Amino acid sequence: MESLNILVAGGSSASGVAVARAFAAAGHRVTTVGSDELRIKEAAALAGAGVTPLVCDLGSLESVRELAETIHRTEGRIDGIFHLVGGWRGAKGIEDQPDEDWDFLERGAVTTLRNVSRAFYSDLAAAPAGRFAMVSSTAVSAPTAAAASYVAAKAAAEAWTLAVADGFRRDQSGSKDQPSEQRSAAVVFVVKALVDTAMRLEHPERTFPGYTDVEELAAAAVGLFERPAAELNGQRILLAK
């Protein structure tokens, strides 16, 4: 596989470090993006050589468009985007779901994803093997009152991602007389929750049943480029055990 240009949105997290490291180790160019300069630089250093840290407010479409211009000047077209901006807020039930929590979750899970997909959609659609992926939760299929805001935000992000998949399908379907091969795909990785080495060391008494290790997520992300786009596009890929 030729060298790809990968963007990791939300790269300061343990999952962001793992995904960036996996792509860099496979010989690809990685741009990892976060809102805090110190944290994203530290994360890029942990991910290793070949990973470039950039600071951007992904909740601002104007800032994301400026990010796209910067990347296009320095690295060229983006081939893959992995949206790992997360966050959790819960409550006791429906009545005590605060607006502040919804605003936080909607901005992190939905607005950032919308902005990144809009700013880089043409890149992914033009790429020989464009890939867009987000991480969602098994809770979307079984929402609870306590997690109402969180699950609603994740469900909205999933819906947007599947709409991106439909965009790829329509743009690359060709015509009846001249059908074309699907090149780009948008997918949803579904996990119960993520776990990393630091969490296991901090809580040695826990077994984290059903959790997905961030290294497994990273391997699945790299593996998206080894499968046909038509097979992947619009799929919810379960990584929970």
Q: Give the CA-CA distance, first to last residue.
A: 29 Å
Strand count, sense and barrel status of the largest sheet are: 7 strands, parallel
- Give the count of helical stretches: 8
The radius of gyration is: 18 Å
Kindly summarize this structure in a few lines:
With 241 residues, this protein is an alpha/beta fold. It contains eight helices and nine strands. Helix 1 packs across helix 7 and helix 4 packs parallel to helix 5.
Overall description:
There is one protein chain. By secondary structure, the chain is an alpha/beta fold. It has helices spanning 14-25, 37-47, 61-74, 99-126, 148-171, 197-202, 214-223, 229-232; strands at 5-9, 29-34, 51-55, 80-83, 131-137, 185-191, 194-195, 212-213, 236-238. Helix content is 45%, strand content 17%. The strands form 2 sheets. A 7-stranded parallel sheet has the order 3-2-1-4-5-6-9, with helices on both faces. Strand 4, helix 4 and strand 5 (131-137) form a beta-alpha-beta unit. It is globular, with a radius of gyration of 18 Å.
Secondary-structure map:
Elements: E1 5-9, H1 14-25, E2 29-34, H2 37-47, E3 51-55, H3 61-74, E4 80-83, H4 99-126, E5 131-137, H5 148-171, E6 185-191, E7 194-195, H6 197-202, E8 212-213, H7 214-223, H8 229-232, E9 236-238
Parallel strand pairs: 1-2, 1-4, 2-3, 4-5, 5-6, 6-9, 7-8
Helix pairs in contact: 1-2, 1-7, 3-4, 4-5
